[in-house]
Amino acid sequence: MNPTTGKPHVVLGAGPAGRTLVDELLARGLRVRHVNRTPIDDVPAGVETVTADISSPDRAVAATEGAATIYHAVNVPYHLQVEAMPNIGRAALTAAHRNDARLVVLDTLYPYGEADGAAITEQTPWEATSRKGRMRAALDHAYLDAHHTGEARVALGRAADFYGPRVVNSTLGGAFFPAVLTGEPALGFGDITLPHSYSYLPDIATGLVDLGTTTDEAAIGRVWHLPTVPAVSTEHIHALVERIIGDGITTRVLDQPVATGPFDERFMSEYAEIFYQHLVPQNMVSTPFERHFDRRPTPLVDGLRATVEWYRDFLTARQDTRNP
Fold first, then answer.
1. Which of 16, 178, 195, 256 is deepest in the core (most CB within 10 A)?
2. Regarding the domain delimited by 9-162+199-225, which CATH topology (the fold level of the hierarchy) does it fall under?
3. Are 301 and 240 in contact (CB under 8 A)?
4. Whole-angstrom Cα distance, residue 299 to residue 277?
5. Using only C-alpha atoms, what is the Rg of the chain?
6. How far apart are alpha carbons 247 and 244 in whole angstroms?
7. Whole-number Å distance between alpha carbons of 267 and 132
8. Per-block mean pLDDT, blocks of 10 residues, the chain (324 long)
9. d(Cα 26, Cα 34) in Å, to the nearest integer?
């Protein structure tokens, strides 16, 4: 089956990644269905929406009926991940199998654990030590096993920490950009002098749709690192943002996972086990994907500029809402 045919491309999840995936699919002229547990607002013209709890296999099958490709971009709060994500993943596999659809999964770096920061590649061993990392690794093995046994056709696209338009709940998101634009101290995590990979959300969406539409079956059934610029220090990113806004930034460094700003105690208690990401070098390499699909990640300064402009609009809209 050619996944670029008129069958719908079905996006599961309406967070920042799911919404950006919808935009990318529409830009390619594809038919789109957007599925979420709760009703979706601000739906682009021409997008079919379905409200369904896809942790139920039967509901996932029904919501994705007739799909060419299913994009699994569902996430849940950190304190629910270990329990909820395996059920959602198995339901997505069932939906792909029953509907003869390709399944493309948005994945994380958690399975690698405290990997070699010099170069995290697709060949880096999966040595997760956290509960969430072990859960993700086990689920990823299940996805790949399903592909290799013929149960479903699956591809995994891994990304580093997100940044970009719509990205709020991120270490380079709502705790950073609003503070920068209002002259408040901006939050930095861990050792901000170490190299750390950040993936630009529109590049993530582009890469996932490449996996969902490619006619090269040899590209399916494996893990890919989605296009991401070579790691630089978070401190360097702060300097780039200073140039973009034309003003200095005051940084407040969080050297241990304690509740602060938008990150409450429950979040931080769950995030603590993966805080190591900010205490070791982390450089995710995406060269194989870039070569195979002829893609290049958005230059860091361009992505940061677009993110700053999105946050300017976001803060203005929020202020207008508070002061009608």
1. 16
2. Rossmann fold (3.40.50)
3. yes
4. 23
5. 19
6. 8
7. 13
8. 76 98 98 97 96 97 98 94 96 98 97 86 95 97 98 97 95 94 95 96 98 96 98 97 96 92 89 94 97 98 98 88 64
9. 12
Q: Are 274 and 81 in contact (CB under 8 A)?
A: no
Give 295's contacts (C-beta < 8 A, 6+ positions apart): 203, 206, 207, 210, 227, 289
Say if CB 97 and CB 151 are below 8 A apart. yes
The pair of three-digit structure tokens given for residue 58, joined into one six-digit string:
């039967």
pLDDT at 324: 59
Whole-model pTM: value is 0.95
Contacts of 170 by beta carbon, 8 Å cutoff, 6+ apart? 161, 162, 163
**Every domain of the chain and the residues it spans:** 9-162+199-225, 163-196+230-284+299-322
Tokens, residue 134: 């072990």
Length of the chain in residues, anyone?
324
The two three-digit tokens of residue 141, written as one number: 């093995």
Fold classification of 163-196+230-284+299-322 is UDP-galactose 4-epimerase; domain 1 (3.90.25)
* Beta strands, E only, the chain: 9-12, 32-36, 48-51, 69-72, 102-107, 153-158, 161-163, 186-189, 195-196, 198-200, 223-225, 232-233, 251-254
- Roughly what angle, to the nearest 10 degrees, separates helices 81-98 and 131-148? 10
- For the chain, give me the number of helices (H) and strands (E)? 10, 13
